[in-house]
């Protein structure tokens, strides 16, 4: 138990040091990047620092696997340099047992990342997008999904229009049971339209079975209501804008993703990308463990064996290869070419199995 605590403390200290180095380095780079992007918007240095602090959690969370693999390599190189692994083996402890503590620490880091860091990243990402929208004056997202249906917003020099629909097709270009409420540039409502269906065409919404009520300069809107078999409402929206307005799944806390997925499906949209992301977050601890096992498999050896630099290079290349395979499987899962669970869980579990096989071969032959 004492040996396990010692290895756990060494690994935690190595991880903390590597994490701190990457945090400081990325913070400096991000401040420069924010100044480059928004230097011509009238923002000052304080704004650049604030944007960098909001963007930093997402950046550091994305490279967590890299930090783990480098921490593992650093730990076992240090243990090999001091011959502590040789002493551990001579005391009757196998290298596999020496891996228990780093693996447990990695599981704790992974669980902390999913349960604590993920909501922090989601909150800071939303605030970052909002501040960027204020600086660039692009208005942010145009879509919102709630239990009451789908909400869209479009605007022009004539005013803003809020659109609510009970359901939609997969890309949001065909709406059912839809309402349009148009507001003047001064902010007051000027027209309301109810329609059975609405289809987005080039530069307009084409409404079917529509009824329009004027909301300005009249005391009884129903008296002046008009029905239309078809009605075109000018629009600045495009299918790409609607699709992009869903936002990144990473901007939604993992605790809220199941409810958001249900709302998406009830609104008629495909939630496959969000389902894949949810499973990827749940699989993060396993993926981090696979990184630790890969690093251990190539560096848990005495330095007198030679080729230490080559082994470190192999460990980094294999870890990057696993990261690429994981992202490739994610794309296949989002496109529906392979099942979600297979796309998410197969890469880390396969890497864990292969790494354990390599370790067993090196230790027991």
Tell me what the structure shows.
The protein is 59% helix and 18% strand. The chain contains twelve helices and seven strands. It is α+β, with helices and mostly antiparallel strands and 365 residues long. The longest helix is centred in the first third of the chain and has 37 residues, at 2-38. The protein has two domains: 2-136 and 268-364, no CATH class; 143-244, lipopolysaccharide transport protein A fold (Sandwich), CATH 2.60.450. Strand 4 (174-183) and strand 5 (189-201) form a beta hairpin.
Query: What integer is the average pLDDT?
Result: 83
Span between termini = 27 Å
Main sheet? 7 strands, antiparallel
* Coarse shape: elongated
Put the structure in a nutshell.
The protein is an alpha+beta fold. It has helices at residues 2-38, 45-62, 64-81, 84-90, 95-98, 100-136, 239-244, 257-266, 272-282, 284-299, 308-334, 340-364, and strands at 143-146, 149-156, 159-168, 174-183, 189-201, 204-214, 226-234.
Features:
seven-stranded antiparallel β-sheet; single chain; 2 domains
What is the fold's blueprint, element by element?
Blueprint: H1 2-38, H2 45-62, H3 64-81, H4 84-90, H5 95-98, H6 100-136, E1 143-146, E2 149-156, E3 159-168, E4 174-183, E5 189-201, E6 204-214, E7 226-234, H7 239-244, H8 257-266, H9 272-282, H10 284-299, H11 308-334, H12 340-364
Antiparallel strand pairs: 1-2, 2-3, 3-4, 4-5, 5-6, 6-7
């Amino acid at each position: 138990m004492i040996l396990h605590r010692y290895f756990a403390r060494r690994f935690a200290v190595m991880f903390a040091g590597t994490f701190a180095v990457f945090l400081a380095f990325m913070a400096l780079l991000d401040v420069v990047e924010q100044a480059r992007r928004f230097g011509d918007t009238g923002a000052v240095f304080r704004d650049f620092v604030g944007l960098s602090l909001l963007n930093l959690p997402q950046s550091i969370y994305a490279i967590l696997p890299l930090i783990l693999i480098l921490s593992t390599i650093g730990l076992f190189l240090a243990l090999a340099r001091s011959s502590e692994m040789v002493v551990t083996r001579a005391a009757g402890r196998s290298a596999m047992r020496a891996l228990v503590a780093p693996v447990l620490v990695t599981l704790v880091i992974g669980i902390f990342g999913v349960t604590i860091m993920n909501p922090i990243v989601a909150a800071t990402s939303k605030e970052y997008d909002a501040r960027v929208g204020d600086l660039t004056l692009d208005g942010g997202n145009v879509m919102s999904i709630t239990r009451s249906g789908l909400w869209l917003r479009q605007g022009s020099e004539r005013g803003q229009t809020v659109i609510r629909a009970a359901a939609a097709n997969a890309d949001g270009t065909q709406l059912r049971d839809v309402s349009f409420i148009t507001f003047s540039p001064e902010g007051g409502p000027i027209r309301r339209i109810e329609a059975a269906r609405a289809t987005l065409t080039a530069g307009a919404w084409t409404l079917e079975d529509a009824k329009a009520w004027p909301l300005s300069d009249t005391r009884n809107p129903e008296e002046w209501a008009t029905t239309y078999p078809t009605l075109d409402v000018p629009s600045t929206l495009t299918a790409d804008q609607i699709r992009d307005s869903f936002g990144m799944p990473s901007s939604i806390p993992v605790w809220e993703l199941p409810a958001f997925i249900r709302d998406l499906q009830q609104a008629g949209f495909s939630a496959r990308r969000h389902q894949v992301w949810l499973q990827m977050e749940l699989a993060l601890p396993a993926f981090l463990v696979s990184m630790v096992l890969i690093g251990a498999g190539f560096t848990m050896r005495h330095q007198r064996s030679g080729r230490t630099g080559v082994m470190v290079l192999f460990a980094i290349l294999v870890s990057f290869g696993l990261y690429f395979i994981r992202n490739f499987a994610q794309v296949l899962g989002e496109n529906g070419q392979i099942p979600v669970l297979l796309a998410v869980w197969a890469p880390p579990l396969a890497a864990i199995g292969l790494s354990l096989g390599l370790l067993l071969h090196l230790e027991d032959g």
